[in-house]
């Protein structure tokens, strides 16, 4: 009777061994994709450390837009920007434009990696396609954040009233990261569909100007002709600029709540990441 009342040690050990151990497995399932994604971001940071002159060259374009275009249009008083001076209205738009121009050509790096055989190494690595695409999309945000610092410095030098609240600055960086990831993923989709750098560059140049001018970056949607306003509202760059105007400058003049802007950008980014995750193996063909 005593033997039947006490569970045997072998039975207890078998039960313990048969019980699932979810915590370590779940932890590894979360940490591994994140570490592989971060490895690609670190790869991009190392490239910039080896060639920091690219960041200085990237500063020329926003400087020209703010100092030349912005100052001229501000003196003409031809665009109504409500309570914001035109330079304050323009600065978030130029930041979004800089992020767009950097990210939309990011896919050319994937074409070069295909030519060098690096894509094959990525595809045979343990990293999932989602991790690869997210890692590459976030890599573009490294350059986007550098542009944010440059535009902030230029805008401050021109006397723009910036929102220097730490939470607002973090919000600006979050928008820049999301915008960079969105347009970089779009760029990678194009790179997965074309075979040569020349064709990719042609498509990239074809997209940048319509995306920029069919947005609220340099003029409000209310001043657009009737046929252009719906196009601008379907343009994700419009929501990036609107969110930046809510957090970057004072007074805030965003038309939509920040959550709506971020939600639209996040949804568009997720959809593009899923599309590119399916297309990414084509890069190795």
Taken from the alpha-carbon principal axes, the silhouette is: globular
- Describe the largest sheet: none
Beginning-to-end CA distance, first to last residue: 71 Å
Report the average pLDDT across residues. Answer: 83
SSE sequence, one letter per element: HHHHHHHHHHHHHH
Q: What level of helicity do the residues show?
A: over 70%
- How many discrete domains? 1
Rg over CA atoms: 24 Å
Number of helices: 14
Structural class: mainly alpha
In a few lines, what is going on in this structure?
With about 280 residues, this protein is an all-alpha fold. Helices cover about 75% and strands about 0% of the residues.
Protein topology:
Layout (H helix, E strand, L loop, with lengths): L1 H4 L3 H10 L3 H29 L2 H6 L1 H17 L9 H18 L3 H10 L1 H7 L4 H29 L8 H28 L3 H17 L14 H6 L2 H12 L10 H22 L6
Helix pairs in contact: 3-9, 5-6, 5-9, 6-9, 6-10, 6-13, 7-10, 9-10, 9-14, 10-13, 10-14, 13-14
Write up this protein:
With 285 residues, the chain is mainly alpha-helical. It has helices at 2-5, 9-18, 22-50, 53-58, 60-76, 86-103, 107-116, 118-124, 129-157, 166-193, 197-213, 228-233, 236-247, 258-279. It has one domain. Helix content is 75%, strand content 0%. Helix 6 runs antiparallel to helix 9 (129-157), helix 7 (107-116) packs across helix 10 (166-193) and helix 10 runs parallel beside helix 14 (258-279). The longest helix has 29 residues, at 22-50. The radius of gyration is 24 Å and the shape is globular. Mean pLDDT is 83; it is low at 1-7 and 9-23.
């Amino acid at each position: 009777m005593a033997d039947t009342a006490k569970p045997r040690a072998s039975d207890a050990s078998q039960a313990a061994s048969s019980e699932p151990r979810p915590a370590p497995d779940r932890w590894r399932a979360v940490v591994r994709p994140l570490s592989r994604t971060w490895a690609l971001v670190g790869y991009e940071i190392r490239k910039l450390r080896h060639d920091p002159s690219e960041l200085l060259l990237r500063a020329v374009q926003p400087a020209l837009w703010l100092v030349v275009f912005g100052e001229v249009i501000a003196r003409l008083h031809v665009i109504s920007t409500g309570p914001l001076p035109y330079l304050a209205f323009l600065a978030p738009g130029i930041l979004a434009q800089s992020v767009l121009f950097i990210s939309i050509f990011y896919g050319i790096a994937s074409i070069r990696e295909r030519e060098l055989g690096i894509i094959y190494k990525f595809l045979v690595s343990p990293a999932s396609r989602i991790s690869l695409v997210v890692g590459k999309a976030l890599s573009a945000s490294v350059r986007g954040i550098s542009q944010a610092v440059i535009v902030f410095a230029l805008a401050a030098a021109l006397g723009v009233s910036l929102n220097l609240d730490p939470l607002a600055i973090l919000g600006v960086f979050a928008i820049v990261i999301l915008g960079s990831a969105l347009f970089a993923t779009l760029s990678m989709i194009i790179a997965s569909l074309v075979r040569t750098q020349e064709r990719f560059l042609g498509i990239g140049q074809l997209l940048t100007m319509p995306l920029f001018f069919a947005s609220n970056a340099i003029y409000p949607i209310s001043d657009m002709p009737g046929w252009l306003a719906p196009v601008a509202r379907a343009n994700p760059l419009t929501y990036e600029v609107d969110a930046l105007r809510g957090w970057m400058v004072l007074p805030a003049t965003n038309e939509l709540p920040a959550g709506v802007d971020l939600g639209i950008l996040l949804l568009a980014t997720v959809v593009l990441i899923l599309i590119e995750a399916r297309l990414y193996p084509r890069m190795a063909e």
